Amino acid sequence: SFSVRDEARQLLEEYLAASDLTMIPPPAMLEEQSRTGYYRSIFFNTSRIEAQGTGKVVLPRIKPYSTWIATGFALNAKKGLAVAQPIRLPTNQGLYILGSFPDQVQIGERVLLTYGVNNYLGRDLTKVVVRLRSSSDFEIIEMNPSERSTSSNSKDYTMTIPTLPALGSLTRHIVLVPKRAGVVKIVLEVESEFGGDYEVLTSYVRESGIERQEIVARVFDLTNGKESSGKIVEKMTPSPFLRSIRFSVSGTGLDRLVERYTSETNSLMGIDLALIRLWRLTGLARYLNETAQLQTPLAMQVAGNISAAYQKLQLYNAYDGSFSFISDQGEQISSLYLSTFAFGAIMSPFMTVRDNVTLNRTLSYILSRQQQDGSFDDEGSCLHYRFCSGEFRR
């Protein structure tokens, strides 16, 4: 069952793989995606119940994944959910490699890369070559210095296994230290005279910290009746950690000169004015509470203004709990947009009055407009001036 959520997750993965490094979202947005595992098969009897009572999936540690096929599910008292009546499939023949690497790391962090080579060819192998390639620079710290390995450059790592017996496996650990931020792909390759395999590991390397540097320079003075022009040259040291550059220009009297051209706003009227006043006053009350200024004369004035703004807002409240606006034709039209906006203001903990009747009526009106898929649909063609709603705009 392919849902819209899976499609959005797949689109995000494709976006991360194809986008530039400067467009990577912050790691907090990717936390859910990185912790959600992606498993390519069902392995029978591979879940255990921990002491807290939650189930934990134990993944297969060897390839091939298609060894077992599930025919049903069973609930075991000790091991939790399991796959019942497994059917043994013919084991695939070949040489396989399996790698493990964290989904998110930091620059300069020592990260453990574990890979295992499994021989299912049915014969002993000699001179098995393992290569490690990466799309970004990194340093390598070998965990087994006794086994000699060659590193041609910082992106290529080669190790030779002298002998690998039939049905045998070999596990090795390497410590990598990434140097650059962004999405890094690591390709593990294993080769022999009878075949090979590869594994692709993707990880997101984030910066260890963001350092902001501000450069202030006085260029020239602008006097009455004179013009001045010229180049502004600022030397910057190239660095892989450089992410963005922002320029801002300011001067004495410059803000007053351009303010009337940049801050042109439309005049508010009606319910808009009452709503915005109430939201601003509750925000000011929150600030006074956080800064411990509730006993000041300003806090007393804010409390009185909140009561006055709420009384003005009640002029636009209908009997069914909805809030309405006056159209150009003089009609009073209920709006789901305004009702939710007003409901968020009057349920603020910094409201001086607690009108439970209005809260219950407005909440009932909002929930009555909820559809089966969870969205909210307004009945009218336009719910508030330019904000139009319909079947495809919810």
TrEMBL record:
<dbReference type="InterPro" id="IPR013783">
    <property type="entry name" value="Ig-like_fold"/>
</dbReference>
<dbReference type="Pfam" id="PF07678">
    <property type="entry name" value="TED_complement"/>
</dbReference>
<keyword id="KW-0882">Thioester bond</keyword>
<dbReference type="Pfam" id="PF00207">
    <property type="entry name" value="A2M"/>
</dbReference>
<dbReference type="InterPro" id="IPR050473">
    <property type="entry name" value="A2M/Complement_sys"/>
</dbReference>
<dbReference type="GO" id="GO:0005615">
    <property type="term" value="C:extracellular space"/>
</dbReference>
<dbReference type="GO" id="GO:0004866">
    <property type="term" value="F:endopeptidase inhibitor activity"/>
</dbReference>
<dbReference type="InterPro" id="IPR008930">
    <property type="entry name" value="Terpenoid_cyclase/PrenylTrfase"/>
</dbReference>
<dbReference type="InterPro" id="IPR001599">
    <property type="entry name" value="Macroglobln_a2"/>
</dbReference>
<keyword id="KW-0732">Signal</keyword>
<dbReference type="InterPro" id="IPR011626">
    <property type="entry name" value="Alpha-macroglobulin_TED"/>
</dbReference>
<protein>
    <recommendedName>
        <fullName>Alpha-2-macroglobulin domain-containing protein</fullName>
    </recommendedName>
</protein>
<feature type="domain" description="Alpha-2-macroglobulin">
    <location>
        <begin position="41"/>
        <end position="132"/>
    </location>
</feature>
